[in-house]
Amino acid sequence: MSARDRHGDTVRLHVVTGKGGTGKTTVAASLALALAAGGGTVLLVEVEGRQGIARLFGTRPLPYEERPIADAPGGGRVCALAADAESALLEYLEMFYGMRRAGHVLTRFGAVDFATTIAPGMRDVLLTGKATEAVRRRVGERRRGGRNAGGGRYFYDAVVMDAPPTGRIAQFLNVNAEVAGLARVGPVHNHADKVMATLRSAQTSVHFVTVLEEMPAQETVDGIAEIRTAGLNVGSVIVNMVHPGFFDGPVLREVAEGSAETDALMRGLKAAGLESPEETARALAEEMSAHAQRASAESEIRARLDGVDRPRMELPLLGEGVGPEELHVLAEHLREQGL
What we know:
- The protein is of the alpha/beta class.
- It has 13 helices and eight strands.
- The protein has an eight-stranded mixed sheet, sandwiched between helices.
- Helix 1 (24-36) packs across helix 13.
- It comes from Streptomonospora algeriensis.
- InterPro entries: ArsA/GET3_ATPase-like, ATPase_ArsA/GET3, P-loop_NTPase.
């Protein structure tokens, strides 16, 4: 993955998606830390309301407010935001109509639910709109009415969005076009157009997180095709939780074909003076066979992922839990692979 796309333009919005269980939020947080290393300021945005970012960094639940959550090497900083549709609607009403107080009254009567019922894409517009506004924001700008009055450098060097899973990502990102079609004039139309202009520009890349298993890999391939069809830019494929390899290729092939040297294992165990060498040798041979079969299947999945013709990175399996320390380890792996 590179901070620049194929045309050399800087990517500033990194949308991270993946099938449930692939560690999408973990990768998004690690990516934010990696981008901030060296002195950058990065905003990490959560849009699903799960508070997964807060749990990873070991903090209290995040509010609808951009606040620092972690330091990165070299003086960098990661800020985080838990975006929700209701708060985004209140901000939207204040920015474009100056009616935040009236907006609070509307939300008490279920205005958000009503709005998202008559225009199903409105919720996603509000959430993606918050992220894209942060991408466009510049230091010193006046945010009322969505006008850029700053003209200086960007407020954030990059924005990372922990986005919905692969099965919904194309609809989530493209829904602004549908809303723009519903509202053909006025602030809603202009807002949706501005959001889509950012999402479809070279500033935005959609990264796919997967593991070396059949279903997540297939969803990744399908999701990439949908994103390309929607006219959006595909970034990298990030293979997460990769098991370590214990044997080289020739040994794995022999074991996978059922030719594990159980007798040799048993002799070695006897020479080492271990108890129950025969039983232990059989158990080791079975584990080697399972490892070889998994490695063979993973190799086939890697070959399939090669077919999407996008950069691929791999992150190791770190054990049972992931916290702030592990996030920094994963961020360093991303940087070592060319982030």
